[in-house]
Design goal:
Length: about 160
């Protein structure tokens, strides 16, 4: 992820945190709790794709995120945990994922259904699209997902 993208992601997270009335410490503790809950729900059993312990999130890490000072992008579980804590709606969750260069799962599912969709998805990701474009793409995908769901319901 480039510096510009990290800064945009950090600003959006700060905006969501402040909108939720949380301090960086509040966000860190609550995000840590969500990550621990999700980690624990995966169960034990030596799975290779499961870390041996949950990630650790502190207020200094939140500060580095918000100031665009991380040397890497955030993991999808961490982004989704932050989104849950700040009460982000679907559009805001998708925006965070896009800003981190991680297209949302439903976008990939809908877009992957056709060659044209895959090409469009690849173009959006590769052009490092910013929030206004991403909001428009998210609305298109949400409508397509709703149409797909209503079509599947009508089959039942």
């Amino acid at each position: 992820m480039d510096e510009k993208s990290l800064i945009a992601l950090g600003r959006r997270i700060r905006s969501l945190r402040e909108g939720a009335g949380l301090t960086q410490i509040d966000l860190a503790y609550a995000t840590q709790a969500v990550l621990h809950r999700d980690w624990a729900s995966q169960g034990r059993g030596g799975r290779r794709d499961r870390p041996s312990r949950p990630p650790s999130i502190g207020h200094t890490y939140i500060s580095r995120i918000e100031n665009g000072k991380l040397p890497h992008s955030l993991s999808t579980p961490t982004l989704l945990a932050i989104a849950e804590v700040v009460g982000a709606d679907l559009t805001a969750r998708h925006e965070l994922l896009w800003l981190a260069g991680k297209p949302p799962e439903d976008f990939l599912e809908v877009m992957g259904a056709s060659p044209e969709g895959r090409e469009l998805a690849r173009a959006i990701v590769e052009t490092d699209a910013q929030p206004p474009t991403l909001k428009a793409a998210t609305k298109v995908v949400r409508k397509a997902s709703e149409r797909k769901a209503s079509h599947e319901e009508s089959k039942s």
